[in-house]
Amino acid sequence: MSHVCYGGAPVTIYRVNANFGGGSTSPPNSIFMYNACATTACATYTLAHETGHIIDSRTGLFSEYDSLGLYAREGPLWTYPNAFSEHEDFAETLGAYVVWHNYTWGARHGHSAGNLNYTGEYPAHYDFAKSVFGGVEY
Ligand SMILES: [Zn+2]
């Protein structure tokens, strides 16, 4: 994907021996994946979210996200498990896009566990993510 490779530097993915799931990034070049995210769906979701941070740091797409007022208009995606911020919502917008049809999130932020109705709950976020992915739907 051209956004990830923008600037030409490689992205290194590290597997971290940890008894918890999820991941983190050290933008613009490193992604850390924690061991306890054992299912393919969880690893895909985490990698897509962390790649969103890489894209945020390497491209001007966050400015586009910001100028669309997505965070203010629709609020942050409830699927993100930690404290909300616009940069986390940017990454979550892309991460959730890849898995939303087949992923079940745990309960968080007052929302029960379940699936995300991305097009129904966050249509502007969805449209932005779809444009970032060049119109490809997963
Ligand atoms: Zn994040």
Describe this protein's structure.
This protein has a domain at 39-132. Helix content is 46%, strand content 10%. It has 7 helices and 3 strands. The two termini are 15 Å apart. Zinc ion binds next to α2 and α5.
Describe the secondary structure blueprint for this structure.
Layout: H1 2-5, E1 12-16, E2 23-26, E3 30-34, H2 40-58, H3 61-67, H4 70-74, H5 86-99, H6 118-121, H7 123-132
Parallel strand pairs: 1-3
Antiparallel strand pairs: 2-3
The structure holds zinc ion.
What key attributes describe this structure?
138 residues; mainly alpha; three-stranded mixed β-sheet; 3 strands; 46% helix; 10% strand; binds zinc ion
- Percentage of residues assigned to helices: 40-55%
Question: Number of helix segments?
Answer: 7
Order of helices and strands: HEEEHHHHHH
Q: How is the largest sheet built, in terms of strand order? A: 1-3-2
Broad structural category: mainly alpha
For the termini, the CA-CA separation is 15 Å
Shape: globular
Which molecules other than protein and nucleic acid are bound?
Answer: zinc ion
What is this structure, in a nutshell?
With 138 residues, the protein is mainly alpha-helical.
